[in-house]
Design goal:
single chain; alpha+beta; Double-stranded beta-helix; 6-stranded antiparallel β-sheet; 4 helices; 44% strand
Length: 232
């Protein structure tokens, strides 16, 4: 199985070692360097429909990069689009749901499936809108977050509330709901006012038992700032 390791502390690289015949796939433009034994191709994952949903609903690339060790063993270096840390996750007994733009790379035996969310959750974006990406299969998955990343454990009876723009991915067995406030008793208008006055945006409340990966910086705020700095 391909070996993923993270090298460097600030804006690190993802180092991947592949044995002859092994392959991975990653986001478009993630490849930084690869040895000559490896071959790079652009492919659609999951067919035309899935590729279109990832592109238009989740903002991911239509074609993903597939890297295969066709001539022998080889190494490659990958990097996420946004500056920040990465996390290598084991997929199999535990599956994950992935926020927009967080996917970096995965073993070829891991699938990314696009499924619909309920209307109430989908209306508050940044978790995939009406569509959300969920893993299946077994292997390893690599995700990235803007800034540093950390893994939080959710325990039964101890819900956690996380600002929506700081969520990278979460255990698919967790239950989640989105609101404009941490309060369940203030009503929609009261929550909206509280959200504006506290400076917080949408939040996700997770319950059950599982893991959530979070990042220290707001991806949405960074992209908004980046857009505002572009020449008119």
């Amino acid at each position: 199985m391909p070996v993923f390791s993270i090298t460097g502390e600030e804006d690190p690289f993802l180092h991947v070692t592949l044995r002859h015949g092994e392959k991975i796939y990653c986001e478009a433009n993630a490849m930084v360097m690869m040895e000559s034994n490896l071959e790079l191709k652009g492919k659609m994952n999951g067919g035309l429909g899935a590729a279109l949903m990832r592109t238009f609903a989740n903002g991911e690339s239509f074609f993903q990069q597939h890297i295969e060790a066709v001539k022998g063993d080889g190494d490659c270096l990958l990097a996420p689009t946004l500056p920040g840390a990465m996390q290598v996750l084991d997929v199999g007994a535990r599956q994950y749901m992935i926020s927009d733009g967080a996917f970096v790379a995965a073993s070829s035996s891991v699938n990314l499936n696009v499924r619909t969310q309920n209307v109430g959750t989908a209306l508050f974006g940044q978790t995939g809108g009406f569509f959300i990406t969920e893993t299946s299969g077994s292997g390893q998955l690599v995700v990235s977050g803007f800034g540093s990343v950390a893994t939080l454990d959710v325990e039964a009876g101890k819900d956690i509330v996380i600002d929506n723009s700081h969520v990278v991915c979460w255990d698919s067995q967790l239950r989640y709901e989105m609101s404009v406030s941490t309060s369940r008793s203030s009503g929609f208008l009261g929550n909206l006012v509280n959200s504006v006055t506290s400076g917080e945006g949408m939040v996700l409340r997770f319950s059950g038992t599982g893991k959530v990966v979070v990042c220290s910086r707001s991806r949405a705020a960074f992209l908004s700032w980046l857009s505002s700095t572009k020449p008119q």
